[in-house]
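Onboarding guide, step 5: your first structure request.
Type a short instruction followed by the sequence, for example:

Predict the 3D structure of this protein.
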Amino acid sequence: MNSARELLQKYWGWSDFRPGQKEAIDASLSGKNTLIILPTGGGKSLCFQLTALLQDGICVVVSPLVALMIDQVSALKSKNIRALSIHGSMRENDLVEALDQCAFGNIKLLYLSPERLRNPIVCERLKTLPISLLAIDEAHCISHWGHDFRPAYRQIAQFHSIINKPPVMALTATATQRVKKDIIASLELEDTQLIQTSFFRPNLSYQVIHTENKLSTIRSILKNSSGNTILYLRTRQHCETLVEQLRMEGIHARYFHGGSSKKSELIDDWQSGREPIMVATSAFGMGIDQANVRHVIHAALPESIESYYQEAGRAGRDEKPAKATIVTSTRDIQVVNNQFLATIPQADLVRQVYTKLCAYFQIAYGELPLEPLDMSFENFVNTYNFPSKKTYEVFRIFDQIGCIRWSNLVVERFRLQVLYKGKELNNLIRKKSSLSTILNILVRLYPNITETPQAIDGYQLSKRTGVGLDQLKVHFAALEKKGYAAISSWNCDTRLFFLEPREDEYILTRAIKHLDQSLETRKVQLKAVQDYVENEKQCNQALLLDYFGETTKTVCGHCSTCQSAPNPARLQSSIITILKKQPASLENLSKLLVIEEKTIIASLMEMLNEERILQKDQLFHVIE
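The system replies with structure tokens like these:
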């Protein structure tokens, strides 16, 4: 068998591993569970990909983004490594075919979206396969304290047991001490080896620019920048508006968001350097392998320090000098707080949404619907006059506590009642026509369809009959035209799976407790962002390291705080001015000058040696 280094050279063309990679691979090969924390661009995916090649069997990779899965599978296939992905948008036939390939096609890596872990077909098939490793990408998504919590990740521990507990490799670029503990506890891992490299990025200059004219500042930055740039904003509308404003200033940029058409073309143009400036929402960047990004700019405050570190870390992966800049104004903190408050539901709304949801679907107390329930989200909120954004958050809470699973979908639903009964209906069905065939199927599938209107899932009916959905619509229209049936239709965009029987007090107590916990977490995250952008004393990079629990006495020397450190002669003059008024301690000098104590100490030592000042009882005095 080839060694790890030989495979590294053969498939990736690298002669040596990056920090932490070889240690992670060796630990996994020895059968240990591992938590891998490597910086953005540190080569996390190689850890499980190469481990998979060194063992018999299949490596199952849980990944949160479909686009990320598709990109990684495509990259592996280009290296002649057999890999495939299974995600929520796949039809059942495609799913079965993919699982067959895993069983008989010598697949080495299978990528799964976390929602697929709930699928009984997937679980039943995978527990029969020789799984060598369970890799969990973006593992912070499992933690309530993480910046991107995904409730489906909470199913991983159960899934791990179903597939006979192979070694686990959990990977992330960002994890505080609290999140690390939560990852290990939530995965129910024992004897987990932590492999973590430093969060310090010596080539990356973290800048914070305060301005009341963001457009002018951004224009100046871009005109003085070279190489690939990513400029992050919060919303699609803001991206489109800024691109238009920049064009009017003579700066050509493109915008990218989750709903962009021609995504591949946009990414290709940006990666090639034909369109080096990309204005984007956070949907851009994850999974894109671009080492030569010279500048990442945040024109809106990031949601958390974790997300900022991850997004900023897309700059300078080639280890050449690069910048990560936040452009902020005095209004930004208030804007973020207002946006935050606009989406946080109150406890009363949580109660109302749950009870009205049960009423909407006519679910009695103690009842558990066995089938998925589809609805129009807009229709639901309009029916009960609920605020859309906050109701959306309530749905997320129900999903996160595991009482209702929900997903987005686009499906046309029909409500149909056959208007004929008895002999008349039998006579219609006996006719040899496409309409009689459809009528016969409807009567068999929906026994009460002649008595009351029945909700019909067009996609499911199409599968059962073998008739295309468009053709079914034609048949329905013909049935209505001939007076055989009464039909109405509507579009559904939300599918709900009730996972627990209706028990209002039990479920709502959990939901409100989770709401309180989420609120506290979000406040802590916002406060950390505020502290970072308002920081004037501590090296920006050192402040980020502190947040992730990594202490350092080193300053980067090139962030906005380090660069704004005062000129020594000017600092000494300021110290003399203060001491002439009254003696002061080092602590007081630091507060009055708004400068770190360690920056002042060097000037004080020089002034003491020159006998310009003296120290008595912890106070410094001017020598007249």
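Each response can be followed by summary notes, for example: The chain has a mean pLDDT of 87.
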